[in-house]
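User: quick one - fold this with iron/sulfur cluster bound?
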Amino acid sequence: MKLTHIFTNEIIPGRIFRIPEQPVNVMLDVTNYCNNRCRFCYNPDSKFYKNDTPKSDKLKKIVTILGDTGTKEILYLGGEPFSGDTIEKLLEIGSKFGMFQRAVSNGSFFKDVGTCLRLKKKGLDEVGISFHSSSSHTHDEIAGREGAFKDAVAGLEYCIKAGISTFVQYSPNTLNMANDILILAEFLDKQFQGEISFFDINRLLPLGMGSTDNNIFLEGDQWFHLLTTATRLDEFGYKAHAELTPFCWLDSMAKKHSVSRKILEKIYRLNRGCFMWVAQLPLDFHGRIKFCPAGPAVGPSILDVKWPAFWKEWEEFNDYRSFLWNNKCIDFNSQTACQYFYRCLGGCKYSKGIHYETDQYSQGIRLAVGA
Ligand code: SF4
Ligand code: SF4
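Assistant: Sure. Structure tokens for the protein plus iron/sulfur cluster:
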């Protein structure tokens, strides 16, 4: 998703972006049910959350409205999106509108090649299968279900055989050896010989159920070492993206650990931008607006407002898009911003569990450039 067309380079509140008429990319929770119980899951452990069940008709309406109003990409999340039948109906609808449809899954509901062929026919373009470790034992322990690793590998195999584009959704954590990601890459490369498109690396945050398990998250030096190790995924032919970390922090960590410019540039290339509320929009299964897929709803349902007019008009969206809340990365007085601004936007705006604040690692403007 190239978004350079939305950057105006005008460092003036309300004029930083050319906001598209509708979100380019929507992340939609299909369900809150999951047969795994991952230790770091960001979904809440409350009765209220679990008893709040999705309605198929509502979800179908949401995808219809999105498709009808020009959204081009949709990412189905959960819970486990393939644990029920609704996903198939949603894929059919999305496909009618020509949307690019991808999902993240634990793989366990891809029972055979036939299931995957059917999903592909209905419109599933790409799937990310979640891996938490190269060790089946550790993966199962983290996922809270024996056989979870085996299911993930089998799911991957069936999707590949059905011709669905696949990637690995990797969740690095402290229960793995430092080079676990490379061991997994080698294993999958041997199994599937270049069939997997890329590795997408999660930056886990202590939210929801995961907030009670603080020891599992990589922090500071550990996260930086993971990113450094991930630059070697290209040795196995993989492209890789990692969830956003501020460029200013990467610079200072590279200095601290004497990492070469060449490796630092490779770490920069891993950095996947996050454009929530600018071009991307996460929704829960009621269609309610979230700021981050990892957080709760903070706005009304798109079914209860005039859509997509609301996308351009809602005060909350416009407050966020003004960036007046961010005095670390932008100086409106001098109309200058950090040189990385459009690639970074202040890093993860949910890393402190509050929407929206600059990243916990943000160090503030460096090498500010004129607008
Ligand atoms: S935009 Fe902000 S957080 Fe990102 S590199 Fe620049 S100063 Fe750091
Ligand atoms: S706000 Fe942070 S956690 Fe949420 S999608 Fe963006 S980078 Fe990821």
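One thing worth noting: Residues 205, 243-244, 274, 276, 292-294, 348-350 surround iron/sulfur cluster (ligand 2) (CB under 6 Å).
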